[in-house]
Amino acid sequence: MKETNPGADPIGQNLIKLISNVCFSVFVFSVLIFTVIAITYQPPDPWLESAPALTKLFTQTENATFKIDDTVAKTGEDLQTEIARAVSPTADIKPITEEVIEKEEVEVSNMTLKASGCEDLEVVNCSDPRVLITVEKFNLRLFKSIVFLDYQTPVNGSKQDECDVSWRFRNKKEKSWRKYRDFRRFKFAIGENCSYKIVHAGGWHSGINARRMRIRVNSTRSGGNNPRAAPLVRDDEINDTIPSLGSETNFRKGKYLYYSRGGDYCKGMNHYMWSFLCGLGEAMYLNRTFVMDLSVCLAGNYNPDGKDQEGKDFRFYFDFEHLKEEASIVEEGEFLRDWKKWDRSHKKKVPVKKVVTHKMTPMQLRKDKSTIIWRQFDGQEPENYWYRVCEGQAAKYIQRPWYALWKSKRLMNIVTDISGRMDWDFDAVHVIRGEKAQNKVLWPHLDADTSPDALVAKLQGMIQPWRNLYIATNEPFYNYFDKLRSHFKVHLLDDYKELWGNTSDWYNETMLLNSGRPVEFDGYMRVAVDTEVLYRGKTRVETFYNLTSDCKDGINTC
């Protein structure tokens, strides 16, 4: 018989134990690593991709400088998606559809006593619910690109068979939830079965008796009481008043993030927005109120003389009311007055944390207890740009609140007015000329491809004859497109100058914001309105890829 080795079993058992311990140690170490990653990992912004992707999208460059351009900057409503943070306050307002009108007709028929004839319709009664139902059905059939939200009770027009009707609506191509108003005059006759029918409908804003009265405020250029001064008009649907902090106690209880002016001032609008939203995003991350300077410097590339224009008001370009609803902000002047007032009346000064470099990250300031965190940007460009705060590791934590920044409602009212005058039934072409057409090195064919004869030849194959054709362009000569008038109903921005002239709502409302001083309808405003009207065209023709083979950013960049 074979004899067994008594030492074999202990050696094997020890080897198995050793292997088991090693495997268990590896497993524990792996779990520890996974736990650390899970805790520290910050996912990209679920609403708008990652910060680097956004940088490329909005600046078209990946370094710390921005290209100078004269295009309109993208804002929150341009980026609205189904998963956007903004929730429409009109969600509870059901649009007026065919089903809604049918229910109204049933209710009216049950309430109306049937007469033997049409005697009760010999004179149009504008308050008759059947009048409003007739208008609702007419509008729904005519304006396919409009969502109708509500109507006011019709009022008498200028004649016995006329009624003026006002309603609020939203354009389907606008991604914000903002509401606009139209009021039109309708002429009625008696149709079949003793019903009303519309025999004539007036154009945009023709129903002047249904127009809501505006709030008028007496003001002068100097701010004094001048009895000869014309009253200024304020749209009561726009609330862009500056919020107040209230009492000293409220000021002291607050927590603030204050950015002093940096190298971003007088840069292009894309640069301004990228930096502003960085500061606002940091304030949200730190759960603080952002101290906001309403003074904007418009870069010279938007102005004919090429000079920067300081002293512009943020509210000329952006929707301040929407910003107040979405973010905690305080106006800089109001904030500094309250701060100085507190320090003068109290021995204990307000605790202030001064930060002199963008390299101190928001994460390092997260637990700071100071009432005011004051970021100062006194260095050289580009180190003194606000958006540098949101670079590097901070990009994982700071999410720019694009949803908070919309274009000015006053500018969008002009866009709506222009579109409404064409009954939202128009095509649009974007004709880029200017400096690009003169630069034959980067755009060798652009000038010839956008000449009047070339435009006629190309657009005849894209647009139906005698359609309303809106031309969004930077071409300075008004008569440049006259040859197109033999084929289309041509509309240019300058055809609507009265919408920002000295008798317009826009003129009066912006003058009120500007301490009674008239506000220029500047180059950026023109581009913003031009672009938004272009977006609402049923057929849209672009310069690059449609009219010319040149690349948008120059030769060999397609």
Describe the structure concisely.
This protein is an alpha/beta fold. It is built from 16 helices and 18 strands. The protein has helices at about 10-40, 50-60, 100-110, 130-140, 250-255, 270-285, 315, 320-325, 330-345, 360-365, 410-420, 435-440, 445-450, 450-460, 505-515, 525-535, and strands at about 145-150, 155, 160-170, 180-190, 195-200, 215, 230-235, 255-260, 290, 295-300, 310-315, 330, 350-355, 370-375, 425-430, 470-475, 490, 540.
Describe the fold and architecture.
The chain has helices at residues 8-40, 51-59, 98-111, 129-142, 248-253, 269-285, 314-317, 320-326, 332-345, 362-365, 409-421, 434-438, 446-449, 452-459, 505-513, 523-535, and strands spanning 146-151, 155-156, 162-171, 180-190, 196-201, 215-217, 232-234, 256-259, 289-292, 295-298, 309-313, 329-331, 352-355, 372-375, 427-431, 468-473, 489-492, 540-541. By secondary structure, the protein is of the alpha/beta class. The chain folds into 3 domains: 98-112 and 121-213; 248-405, Rossmann fold (3-Layer(aba) Sandwich), CATH 3.40.50; 409-547, Rossmann fold. The strands form 5 sheets. Strands 1, 2, 3, 4 and 5 form a 5-stranded antiparallel β-sheet that branches. It has a 5-stranded parallel β-sheet with strand order 12-9-8-14-13. The model is unreliable at 1-8, 38-68, 81-91 and 215-234 (pLDDT under 50). Residues 250-543 form the DUF7075 domain. Keywords: Membrane, Transmembrane, Transmembrane helix.
